[in-house]
């Protein structure tokens, strides 16, 4: 494995990581919001004003956490793009890693060992 082709040759691993990131990006915010809604529902059923206020506050915090979790991959991608502009020696190989993690559907796995190269 050549140093300049690491990402191309390990594209399948990066693609799997991309699927995991995509699932977590959707599942964690949904779980946080549903948990907050369940807590709020329990507080409303109990008719306790303090519990309702606490649950509303908790729901808002969980919603904010869900939004942050949803956008973490975007923020990380932006940081990697900035680093990619600085480090031009990595070139297109670096872009393969980023593409496979951030946009799983367009990941090029044709250079992976065991696949027949298209070039």
Question: What do these coordinates show?
Answer:
- This protein has about 120 residues and is mainly α.
- The protein has one domain (about 5-105).
- Helix content is about 75%, strand content about 0%.
- The chain contains 4 helices and no strands.
- α2 (about 10-45) runs antiparallel to α3 and α2 packs parallel to α4 (about 90-100).
- It is elongated, with a radius of gyration of 21 Å.
- The mean pLDDT is about 80.
Give me the secondary-structure topology.
Layout (H helix, E strand, L loop, with lengths): L5 H4 L1 H36 L2 H38 L4 H12 L17
Helix pairs in contact: 2-3, 2-4, 3-4
Summarize this, please?
The chain has 119 residues and is mostly helical.
- Give the assembly state of these chains: single chain
Number of helices: 4
Kindly state the mean pLDDT as a whole number? Answer: 79
Radius of gyration: 21 Å
> Could you give the count of β-strands?
0
Quote the distance from N terminus to C terminus: 17 Å
Runs in which pLDDT lies below 50 for 5 or more consecutive residues are: none
Tally of separate domains = 1
Q: What fraction strand?
A: under 5%
Which descriptor suits the 3D outline?
Answer: elongated
Could you say which structural class the secondary elements and strand pairing correspond to? Answer: mainly alpha
Give a quick account of the main beta sheet: strands, pairing sense, barrel closure. none
Following the backbone from N to C, one meets helices and strands in this order, namely HHHH
- Helical fraction equals over 70%
